Structure to design on (210 residues):
DNA sequence: GTATCACTGAACCATTTGGTTGACAATATA
DNA sequence: TATATTGTCAACCAAATGGTTCAGTGATAC
């Protein structure tokens, strides 16, 4: 749990990103999360499991319901990794790359 | 190509992230990319294909070699998506969530 | 022209993923 | 107690993923 592999893998599915987006508005029960999706509750439950394993949300058993809430911490780690490439998407990454290559490793 | 699904999926494998990291230092031939990895060149070629399909690198045929160079643009899109959650990992995302939930959707 | 290098494509394989259904467990309600 | 709600677990399935090997293609070097 919590490594870049599992974080990025968890984020690579639209349904799971939609679940996270929903949880930005506040915590939600699993059945409420499942309602808008055109799939079985079991399927949504599996997606929640993937997100939970990745540490992106926290499930709390309360009565017979499971309440999910966002835990964005792993996203920070993922973002930190991506940010290293910022220079390459902002401007002349092409030149920079050639420059670095020219300087010898 | 270029959607969040394929971008995050491409980033979810350590080998592929290592390839991208290597390309930060400048472009590289496929065989040079493959060298440090303990797997066949075919396997690396497949990873490069995944990255290429995701738009994260550009392959240019030059003579008999394939030269790969970084294209970080899709990372910006992924980062933009992640940044929306920044408030939830910086401070009291818990309180914020409860506040938003309390305010009614 | 022939051999070598760099790479792709096809076939294969094991594992994972994303979905289904049906049975069950646990909790709340009537 | 009986019943409905909430969710999990197990079994199953098709498709995708990540790797292999072997054969072939196209460009370079000798």
């Amino acid at each position: 749990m919590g490594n870049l592999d599992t974080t990025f893998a968890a984020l690579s599915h639209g349904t799971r990103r939609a679940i996270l987006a929903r949880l930005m508005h506040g915590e939600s029960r699993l059945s409420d999360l499942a309602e808008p999706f055109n799939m079985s509750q079991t399927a949504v439950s599996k997606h929640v499991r993937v997100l939970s394993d990745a540490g992106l949300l926290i499930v709390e058993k309360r009565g017979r319901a499971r309440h999910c809430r966002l835990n964005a911490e792993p996203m920070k780690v993922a973002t930190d990794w991506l940010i290293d490439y910022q220079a390459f998407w902002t401007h002349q990454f092409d030149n920079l790359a050639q420059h670095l290559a020219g300087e010898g490793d």
Chain A has one domain: 4-102. The helical segments of chain A are 4-11, 14-24, 30-34, 41-53, 73-83, 86-90, 93-102.
